[in-house]
Design a protein that fits this description.
alpha/beta; six-stranded parallel beta sheet; six-stranded mixed beta sheet; 10 helices; 12 strands; 40% helix; 20% strand; binds beta-D-fucofuranose
Length: 311
């Protein structure tokens, strides 16, 4: 860096300065994602510096981080938007400053699609559909008819919460599974809030007639498992549980028989992200959305897969 270079930085030869406005540190997924991005930037000669801001799941802090990146005239801004709405103004400011924005992980509402270059991350609706397909397969033969479901949603208004919910119920409705959504609340993707919401579910509805808990991430599922055990029930047996992410702790709970299905969400995309950042800085054509590859795991696979987990 340095010098009184009046260009836009792209292709200047001395490496790109990248600003990354990360969501927070709410989950094992997020920590692994931050580490992956930071390690990839450090190892990459094409990147001079990664300015990293942890926004503590607070949109105001993220907007402030993006504004600071604009002031600092970074080459590329990477944003993992905590929620989908409310980005128009700051994205427009980045566009006016001529700084391209790459979304990592989470997306923004369709109305803002022209204000970012590309998104690299998971297909959250597809993750929800995978969870829904397992629920249909598991409960289609349910002798008592209606499958009674509790849902622990991720952060209200976030792309993964919106889309994991939509994809799941899309499949249940399409397949005609008779179900009742007994309750659905946000646990903000954290273990503490997941546990607290599950305690409220248990107080309000009991657990005797409940078939399935669908938790939008590992932490909320693991928090709920504690609440279920403290209430004297056996998670994974008295109530079936689906989680999304697939951390080591999530798989361990699966090996212990405490949950039944894991939909993988892959946070380790740092190297892929650096490639996208460089392409965008060079003004190359990129796809509007690049999905990260992900699988699903049932109880027969938990033990063999546990040693492979990277976070
Ligand atoms: O599933 C969850 C994290 O946005 C895909 O955020 C990410 C989600 C992930 O808090 O654990």
């Amino acid at each position: 860096g340095g010098g009184d270079d009046s260009g836009d930085g792209g292709g200047s030869g001395d490496g790109l300065v990248v600003g990354f406005a990360q969501v927070g540190a709410e989950s094992a997924w997020r920590t692994a994602n931050s580490e992956s991005v930071q390690a990839a930037a450090e190892a990459d000669d094409r990147i001079a510096e990664l300015k990293f801001v942890d926004a503590q799941q607070d949109q105001e802090k993220q907007i402030e981080a993006v504004r600071n990146f604009i002031t600092q005239q970074v080459d590329v801004i990477v944003l993992a938007p905590v929620v989908e709405t409310g980005w128009t103004d700051v994205l427009q400011e980045a566009a006016d400053a001529g700084i391209p924005v790459v979304l990592a992980d989470r997306g923004v509402e369709a109305a803002d699609e022209d204000l970012y270059v590309t998104r690299l991350g998971s297909d959250f609706a597809e993750e929800g559909r995978k969870a829904g397909a397992w629920a249909v397969e598991t409960f289609a033969e349910d002798p008592d008819g209606t499958t009674r479901i509790l849902e622990l949603q991720g952060t209200t208004g976030s792309a993964p919460a919106n889309d994991r919910k939509a994809g799941f119920f899309e499949v249940l409705d399409a397949e005609g599974l008779p179900y009742e959504l007994v309750d659905s609340q946000s646990g903000n993707f954290t273990a503490e809030e997941g546990k607290a919401v599950m305690e409220t579910f248990i107080t309000t509805h009991g657990l005797d007639g409940i078939d399935l808990l669908y938790a939008h991430n590992d932490e909320m599922g693991l928090g709920a498992i504690q609440a279920i055990e403290e209430a004297g029930y056996q998670p994974g047996t008295d109530i079936q549980i689906i989680i999304v992410d697939g951390s080591k702790a999530g798989f361990q709970a699966g090996v212990d028989g405490k949950l039944n299905y894991i939909v993988e969400c892959n946070p380790v995309f740092g190297e892929q992200l650096m490639d996208v950042v460089v392409q965008v800085a060079n003004g190359e054509e990129v796809e509007k959305f690049t999905p990260v590859e992900e699988g699903v795991f049932d109880a027969s696979q938990f033990e063999a897969e546990l040693p492979n987990r990277k976070f």
